[in-house]
Write a structure and sequence with these properties.
The complex is a heterodimer of chains A (217) and B (83).
Chain A: E1 4-11, H1 16-34, E2 38-43, H2 49-59, E3 61-67, E4 74-76, E5 82-85, E6 97-101, H3 109-115, E7 120-124, E8 129-132, H4 146-161, H5 166-185, H6 191-195, H7 197-206, E9 207-211
Parallel strand pairs in A: 1-2, 1-3, 3-6, 6-7
Antiparallel strand pairs in A: 4-5, 7-9
Helix pairs in contact in A: 1-4, 4-5, 5-7
Chain B: H1 3-28, E1 35-38, E2 43-44, H2 46-55, H3 58-76
Antiparallel strand pairs in B: 1-2
Chain lengths: 217, 83
């Protein structure tokens, strides 16, 4: 099967969590454009199962970045419509590198996708946590709490776009999370940033790479 | 149930209740300028998290469990492990 050096990204925005992920995923799209990599952007209400399948089959993108809710069996799109489900259509991820910024998906779906030929799957084996400042919700890119979570998370697809392996990307991200975690415990952090440290620790413990850590775009 | 039976059954429950109270007190001390998204379970203010822990529902139990893991990591020095 031929795969293309392209990025397929899903980023619905139907609630506060997806609202933040939607905006912050823009940084990854910017980097892909800079690297002259084709971006297939299923944003907002375009993140449907019909569009996802169509883009996947027609373009065969090698890198897939999924933003949205999820569970151990499925990753969801706009209004929580399942985009990919274990033992139903996870074979469509064959030959791909996937980063799922969603809950629980690495626990069973990720392993199942890798068994069916996905090159690498990075995700979370428990809930994905995101701290944010309620007073910044209308300006998510200026949120000083959310950035501590989302910059290290964005590093996964950005590292892969820069030509690094999935293993290197995951390790870069974990290093950045630990750096931010130490900052959050320091005297330089605000009270709210410090209080969010426990949730960053949760993400550090639960971010996992499955499959071939040498997989590259 | 007589007093002896109560004493035999209670230690685990006592510990669970103590941990729950510890987490509630720690949450009460946190900033109200922080909301937390817990994946597909929703987003929570400090007060909502406290209510969930008090009620002992699924989210409340997850919060207690992860807070205890965090405290253990702090006390065991795991958070200072090398990159």
């Amino acid at each position: 099967m031929q795969v293309n050096k392209a990025l397929l990204i899903t980023r619905p925005n139907h609630d506060p969590a997806t609202h933040y992920l939607f905006y912050w995923a823009g940084e990854v799209i910017f980097m892909a454009h800079r690297k002259r990599i084709t971006v297939l952007d299923l944003s907002k209400d375009k993140a449907t199962k019909k569009n996802f399948d169509s883009y996947l089959k027609r373009n065969q993108p090698k890198l897939i970045f999924l933003n949205g809710h999820g569970n151990k069996d499925s990753i969801l799109g706009f209004n929580n419509e399942p985009l990919i489900s274990m033992n139903k259509d996870d074979h469509l991820l064959n030959g791909k590198i996937i980063y799922a910024r969603s809950c629980d998906a690495a626990r069973e779906l990720g392993a199942s996708a890798v068994r069916k030929g996905a090159l690498a799957f990075i995700g979370y084996i428990r809930s994905y946590r995101l701290g944010y400042s309620p007073s910044s919700i209308t300006r998510p890119l200026q949120d000083k709490i959310a950035e501590l979570f989302l910059i290290p998370s964005n590093l996964i697809p950005i590292s892969i776009l820069k030509g690094n392996s999935a293993g290197h990307a995951n390790s870069n991200s974990l290093k950045a999370m630990r750096r931010n975690f130490r900052f959050m415990l320091s005297g330089n952090a605000s009270a709210a940033q410090r209080d969010a440290a426990r949730h960053m620790w949760h993400n550090i413990q639960n971010q996992k790479l499955l499959g071939d850590d040498s997989a590259k775009l | 149930m007589n007093k002896d039976q109560k004493t035999k059954q209670s230690p685990k429950l006592d510990v669970e209740e103590e941990l729950k109270q510890l987490v509630i007190q720690r949450l009460k001390a946190t900033s109200d300028e922080l909301n937390i998204v817990i994946g597909n379970k929703g987003d929570f203010t400090r007060e909502e998290l406290i209510r969930r822990v008090e009620s002992g529902d699924k989210i409340g139990k997850e919060i207690v469990e992860s807070e205890i893991e965090f405290l253990k990591a702090l006390t065991e020095g795991k958070i200072y492990a090398s990159e």
